[in-house]
Specification:
Distance between the termini: 25 Å
Helix content: 10-25%
Radius of gyration: 15 Å
Number of strands: 8
CATH superfamily: 2,3-Dihydroxybiphenyl 1,2-Dioxygenase, domain 1
CATH class: Alpha Beta
Order of helices and strands: EHEEEEHEEE
Length: 118
């Protein structure tokens, strides 16, 4: 096996047009209140996964949910997957709380997220 390994998919972000309506729906679906709750982001911890609601997702290039693979070294993983035929969509950025994210498209254009907790 080459390159660095991942910790699996632990985060899925859903673009939403109305975060307040989506919050009500996901509270009902998951049966719990969010851990992060603001007009800019709503996040739930459910069965070992983080489910996030992102307002205006389509304006940020998100048109469907994006699964985030957790990695130990996001810069190295981004370089590795682009060298293997992927295309960087969003470069590494800090989203707060010590969390770095980036997105990459696979050779067929499927968007995949990478996430590193510091």
């Amino acid at each position: 096996m080459t390159g660095s390994s991942t910790e699996g998919i632990k985060t899925v972000l859903h673009p939403v047009s109305d975060i307040a309506k989506a919050r009500v729906f996901y509270v009902a679906l998951l049966g719990l209140e969010p851990q992060a709750d603001s007009p800019h982001y709503v996040g739930f911890e459910a069965a070992g996964q983080h489910i996030g609601l992102v307002p205006g997702g389509s304006s940020q290039g998100m048109t469907s949910p994006v699964a985030y693979w957790h990695v130990a070294d996001i810069e190295a993983k981004l370089a590795e997957v682009t060298a293997a035929g992927g295309t960087a969509k969003d470069q590494v950025r800090d989203v707060g709380g010590g969390r770095l994210v980036a997105t990459v498209a696979d050779p067929d254009g499927n968007v995949i997220g990478l996430l590193q907790d510091r």
